[in-house]
Design goal:
Length: about 525
């Protein structure tokens, strides 16, 4: 599942063959500007998309950079794409020229047919996107995120109690934490432990997005004119499927918002983003267009924030169980000792302890670097043609930043495949040596950089601090009672997530158990 709509590649050969023939008639190759060449890349032509990797693209693109350099051009059925494999190229284009590189590619299936046009992460650069982003930023600005500490803390402690009750459902509990935080902040809604109506709805919509979100899964992404084909035409299954998904997508955004409005009408509304903005809207007499912006911004927090935060928490759980890799487990043990030293064993951590447990920040940063949640970032789009290092970058090119390659560049992150949080322990020395800068690339670039990153970091930090303070996370045991070490695979989808695995959450002591039981605020 993903809220981001990627520019990716690869789909069924026969379908694409047909598409290629039609497409040849409709589209022409991007024209070159004067004598300037396009950036290097695999030979481009209508059928070369079959050479484009369709799994773990970030690794293949990183390997390709040894052949073609750090800026690679591929042409995918009428879609020019450049892949940026270095921090320098990303800085030069997505940061320094961000005005030109901050749009998003058009995604016909997801945005136009499935109804995700409200999702501002996929809106093209322009006033509509700016209005949404401004409102979001107004509420999630770094100076304001401390106002959410009580919610974030409460939900983290709820997770501790849930883990005690049904530790085998730890995956569900962790996901619930991330979901509950954003639902409470956006709609003032308390997520129920099982079968929450709004979470279920959102997850259903996200499933559709997960299936269609990778660009190219549906032919209509390459051939937007296919959107006009009536549903009854043989082969137009995508139109029927899109209609079904569209209903859920609309319900996901409409229903919780309606709930807030109903509560406001009967005087039971809880203070939250939607309620505060609706109040303002009524006082200032803003039009319904503004109400739509409020609704859209409320909806994106769940879409953007639930899965991303969950993935990092699951990665840290993996490290805590000694599954992999070498230094992960010892780092977690070190963090646990630091927590014990800073707060003792008579209470749970709070945000006031943050400065006393600096190693935990390093663990979260290293998790974001080691397995970036979005290894290929989210596609940007070139609004006007450009020139870079003598190459022509056509207008309408999709730009993919290889976040994984940037965060695994050994000149910047020595021994990049090792999980080594200590690499962030001394930022001053690091900056003098030009190594191990914080992995901000995990949150994207330029004007599109993740505006929820401060809340994300706070949510991950307190969840990890709370869990490690009272739980020991251990490997599962087999029927013979011996520990098993499962092999963990990371998906090669847009969001790179570890596959489900079993583990055991055990209170570290009787005192810890009692702290968990008494944690209800
Ligand atoms: C570990 C957690 C997270 C990671 C790794 C992450 C990463 C990202 C990335 C890579 C982007 C795309 C940036 C680009 O286009 O260059 C993004 C965009 C975005 N993120 Fe996050 N994110 C996280 C959590 C959150 C949370 C908790 C929220 C909301 C509360 C959030 C809200 C958004 C929004 C609204 C956008 C769209 C920005 C735009 O297109 O203007 N994210 N995020």
């Amino acid at each position: 599942m993903s809220f981001f709509i990627a520019s990716a590649v690869g789909c069924d050969f026969t379908v694409l063959l047909t598409a290629g023939i039609i497409l040849c008639l409709l589209v022409s190759f991007p024209s070159r500007q004067g004598s300037r060449p396009l950036p290097p890349g695999p030979h481009t032509g209508w059928f070369t998309s079959f050479r484009v990797p369709n799994s773990y693209q970030w690794i293949t693109y990183a390997q390709w950079s040894k052949i073609y350099g750090d800026i690679i051009y591929v042409y995918v059925f009428g879609n020019p794409v450049i892949v940026l494999n270095s921090a320098e190229a990303v800085e030069d284009l997505l940061e320094k020229r961000s005005k030109n590189y901050s749009s998003r590619p058009v995604r016909t299936m997801v945005v136009e047919l499935m109804g995700w046009d409200w999702l501002f992460s996929s809106m093209p650069y322009g006033q509509r996107w700016k209005d949404h982003r401004k409102l979001f930023r107004h509420h999630f600005h770094p100076s304001l995120t401390s106002t959410y500490y009580p919610v974030v803390l409460e939900e983290s402690y709820t997770t501790l109690r849930n883990l005690l009750r049904t530790p085998e459902n730890y995956n569900h509990h962790i996901r619930r934490t991330a979901a509950a935080i954003v639902m409470k902040i956006s709609y003032g809604h308390d997520v129920s432990d099982q079968g929450d109506v709004y979470v279920t709805l959102a997850d259903e919509a996200l499933q559709g997005l997960g299936k269609a979100g990778i660009f190219g899964t549906f032919l209509v992404d390459y051939l937007p004119c296919l959107k006009y084909i009536p549903e009854w035409v043989p082969g137009a299954d995508f139109k029927r499927q899109a209609r079904i998904w569209r209903t859920v997508t609309r319900a996901m955004i409409d229903k919780p918002f309606r709930m807030v409005k109903d509560r406001m009408a009967d005087g039971t509304a809880v203070s939250c983003f939607a309620q505060k903005e609706l109040e303002k809207c009524m006082q200032t007499g803003q039009d319904s267009r503004y109400e739509d912006i409020i609704k859209n911004v409320a909806g994106i927090s769940y879409t953007a924030g639930a899965d991303t935060v969950t993935i990092i928490l699951r990665i840290i759980v993996i490290g805590s169980t000694d599954f992999e890799p070498d230094r992960f487990y010892s780092s977690i043990r070190e963090a646990q000792k630091e927590i014990d030293r800073a707060i003792g064993t008579d209470r749970l951590p709070t945000f006031d302890d943050r400065n006393d447990i600096p190693f935990l920040d390093c663990i979260v940063w290293e998790s974001l670097r080691w397995n970036p949640v979005l290894p290929m970032g989210v596609a940007h789009y070139v609004s006007e043609e450009d020139e870079y290092r003598g190459y022509h970058i056509p207008k309408g090119t999709s730009v993919l930043a290889n976040v994984w390659a940037i965060l695994h560049d050994e000149t910047c992150y020595p021994d990049p495949s090792a999980f080594n949080p200590a690499r962030f322990s001394d930022p001053t020395a690091n900056s003098k040596l030009g190594i191990n800068q914080y992995p901000y690339a995990a949150f994207g670039f330029g004007r599109r950089m993740c505006p929820g990153r401060w809340l994300a970091f706070d949510s991950m930090w307190i969840a990890v601090a709370s869990i490690l303070s009272v739980y020991s996370i251990q490997k599962p045991t087999g029927e013979d009672g011996h520990e098993i070490t499962p092999s963990i695979q990371y998906t090669s989808s847009l969001l790179s997530r570890p596959n489900p695995f079993k583990c055991r959450f055990i209170p570290r002591s009787e005192k810890a158990r009692s702290l968990i039981q008494r944690s209800a605020t």
